[in-house]
C-alpha cells in the first residue's frame, strides 16, 4: 500500500461473505490508500482470509440490523486524514487515482462526491455520492440506505467507482431485496415519518418490478406527508426534496403500469409545490419523468421539450454537485434523454436530427441497447439498410444483442436478399422462441431462396406440427 508523506487515506469497508467480489475491490485501491480497515459482520466464507492477504486490518463486529451502526463502528479504527468509503462490490477506476490524490489536497472542503457507475444487466446507471471525507467530519445515520452527515463544505470530482451489486445471480438478488425490504419496513416501524425510508422502500419495490406495491407505498407516503409550511408533524423530518424523490419513484411505478396520466399529475403537482417553496431550479428527476410520460402517451413534441429542459438543467446540477447536497437520480441520464429525443423525432419523421441524437446517446453510453435499436429503425425508414444492419451489428460486438436484435437483423438481411446471412439470426431468435411459427416460416423461405429444398420441406413439416388441432 502507498505510503503518503502528506494526506493519509483510510479505506473503510463493512463486509459479510464477500469472497467473490472483494479481491477486485481491494486490488483497485491497494496502491491508492494508506490503510484498509475492514469490519466483518459474520462472514462464513473466505472473506476474512482474502482481506488479510491484502494487508487489511480486520475487526469483527456483530450485525445489529443497521448499516450506519456498522459503518460508524468502522470509522473508529481509521487513522488517516481522509476516509474513503467503498463497498466490496465496487471498484475504483485506476485512471482516476491521480484525481483522487488531487482532490484530497483541497484544503477548502471536508467531503468529495464521486461518480458511481452502477451496472444493471446490460446497462449502467450513474449517480453522484459522497464517498471521501475528512476523518471526524462525517458520520452515518439510518439503518439502511444510510445517509452520510457532513460537517463543512464539499466538492465534486470526476472520480469513478464501478458498482456490481445489482448484477448478482437471481437468487442472490432476491435475498438482497428481501433483506432491504425487511430493514426498510423495520426503519418505518421505528419512525413512520421517515421520508427517506419511504422513498427507498418505493424504490426497492420499483427495482424489483413490484410496481403495484410501489404505488401503494407511494400513495400512502404522499398522503402521510404534506410538504406545506406550518403543517409538518414535529417527528416527520420531511423536506421538499424528499417529497420530490417520493413523487419521482411513485410516478415511475405508474409509468411502468402504463398510467402516464397519473404520473404526469404527480409530477406537475410536485413542480408547483417546489416552485412555491422557492426550490430552484426545477427538479431534473421530475422533468425527466414528465418527458418519459409524454413519450409513452405519444405526445412527442412535449416529450422533446421536457428532455431538452432536462439536459439544460442537468448541466447546472453537474456544475453545482459540490454545493447541492440533494440526491439526484437522473444526473447520469444524458444518454437516455438523447435516446428519448431521437425516438420522438424519429416518430415525427425528422430522421436526420433523430439520428444525430441517437448517435450521441450511443457515444455517451455504448452499452445502451435501446439507442442502437432506435437508430437502426431511423436508418431503415430512410432506406439506408446498410447502416441499419451495421448499427445492430454493433450490439453484437458490444455483447448486448437480444432477441429483438436477432429478429430485426434477419429481417434486414431479407430486405437485402442476403438469405444466407439472415438464417443464423432467425435461428438464434427461434432457439429462445421455438413456437414462433412466423419466424419458422421466414427460415423456411430463406432455405427455399437458397435452393435448400429438403431443409425447407423439413421446416414446413415443423410448421404443420405447431398448428393447433382443430
Automatic annotation (TrEMBL):
InterPro entries: Glyco_trans_2-like (IPR001173), Nucleotide-diphossugar_trans (IPR029044), TPR-like_helical_dom_sf (IPR011990), TPR_rpt (IPR019734)
Keywords of this entry: TPR repeat
Coiled coil location: none
Domain annotation Glycosyltransferase 2-like: ranges: 10-141
Pfam families (UniProt xref): Glycos_transf_2 (PF00535), TPR_14 (PF13428), TPR_16 (PF13432), TPR_8 (PF13181)
GO molecular function: transferase activity
Organism of provenance: Candidatus Brocadia fulgida
Taxonomy, superkingdom: Bacteria
Protein name in UniProt: Glycosyltransferase fused to TPR-repeat domain protein
Similarity annotation: Belongs to the glycosyltransferase 2 family. WaaE/KdtX subfamily.
Native organism taxonomy: Bacteria, Pseudomonadati, Planctomycetota, Candidatus Brocadiia, Candidatus Brocadiales
Name of the gene: waaE_3
TPR repeat segments: 284-317, 335-368, 403-436
Amino acid at each position: 500500500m502507498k505510503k503518503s508523506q502528506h494526506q493519509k487515506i483510510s479505506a473503510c469497508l463493512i463486509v459479510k461473505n464477500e469472497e467473490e467480489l472483494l479481491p477486485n475491490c481491494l486490488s483497485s485501491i491497494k496502491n491508492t490508500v494508506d490503510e484498509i480497515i475492514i469490519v466483518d459482520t459474520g462472514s462464513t466464507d473466505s472473506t476474512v482470509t482474502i482481506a488479510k492477504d491484502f494487508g487489511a486490518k480486520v475487526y469483527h463486529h456483530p450485525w445489529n440490523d443497521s448499516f450506519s451502526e456498522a459503518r460508524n463502528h468502522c470509522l473508529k479504527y481509521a487513522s488517516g486524514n481522509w476516509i474513503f468509503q467503498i463497498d466490496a462490490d465496487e471498484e475504483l477506476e485506476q485512471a482516476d487515482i491521480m484525481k483522487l490524490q488531487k482532490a484530497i489536497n483541497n484544503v477548502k472542503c471536508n467531503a468529495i462526491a464521486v461518480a458511481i457507475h452502477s451496472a444493471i444487466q446490460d446497462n449502467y446507471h450513474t449517480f453522484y455520492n459522497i464517498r471521501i471525507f475528512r476523518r471526524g467530519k462525517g458520520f452515518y445515520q439510518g439503518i439502511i440506505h444510510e445517509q452520510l452527515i457532513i460537517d463543512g463544505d464539499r466538492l465534486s470530482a470526476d472520480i469513478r467507482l464501478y458498482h456490481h451489486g445489482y448484477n448478482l445471480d437471481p437468487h442472490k438478488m432476491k435475498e438482497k431485496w428481501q433483506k432491504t425490504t425487511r430493514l426498510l419496513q423495520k426503519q418505518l416501524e421505528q419512525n413512520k415519518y421517515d421520508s427517506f425510508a419511504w422513498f427507498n422502500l418505493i424504490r426497492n419495490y420499483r427495482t424489483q418490478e413490484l410496481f403495484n406495491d410501489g404505488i401503494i407505498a407511494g400513495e400512502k407516503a404522499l398522503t402521510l406527508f404534506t410538504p406545506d409550511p406550518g403543517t409538518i408533524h414535529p417527528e416527520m423530518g420531511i423536506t421538499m426534496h424528499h417529497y420530490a424523490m417520493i413523487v419521482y419513484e411513485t410516478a415511475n411505478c405508474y409509468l411502468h403500469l402504463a398510467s402516464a396520466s397519473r404520473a404526469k399529475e404527480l409530477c406537475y403537482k410536485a413542480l408547483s409545490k417546489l416552485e412555491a417553496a422557492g426550490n430552484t431550479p426545477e427538479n431534473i428527476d421530475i422533468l425527466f419523468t414528465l418527458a418519459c410520460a409524454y413519450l409513452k402517451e405519444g405526445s412527442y413534441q412535449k416529450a422533446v421539450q421536457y428532455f431538452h429542459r432536462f439536459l439544460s438543467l442537468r448541466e447546472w446540477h453537474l456544475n453545482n454537485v459540490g454545493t447541492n447536497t440533494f440526491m439526484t437520480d437522473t444526473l447520469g441520464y444524458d444518454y437516455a434523454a438523447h435516446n428519448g429525443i431521437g425516438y420522438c423525432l424519429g416518430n415525427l419523421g425528422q430522421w436526420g436530427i433523430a439520428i444525430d441524437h441517437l448517435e450521441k446517446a450511443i457515444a455517451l453510453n455504448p452499452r445502451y441497447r435501446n439507442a442502437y435499436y432506435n437508430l437502426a429503425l431511423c436508418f431503415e425508414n430512410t432506406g439506408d439498410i446498410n447502416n441499419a444492419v451495421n448499427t445492430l451489428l454493433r450490439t453484437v460486438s458490444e455483447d448486448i444483442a437480444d432477441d429483438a436484435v436477432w429478429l430485426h437483423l434477419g429481417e434486414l438481411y431479407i430486405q437485402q436478399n442476403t438469405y444466407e446471412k439472415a438464417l443464423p439470426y432467425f435461428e438464434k431468435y427461434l432457439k429462445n422462441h421455438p413456437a414462433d411459427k412466423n419466424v419458422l416460416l421466414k427460415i423456411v423461405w430463406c432455405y427455399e431462396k437458397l435452393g435448400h429444398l429438403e431443409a425447407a420441406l423439413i421446416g414446413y413439416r415443423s410448421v404443420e406440427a405447431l398448428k393447433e388441432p382443430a
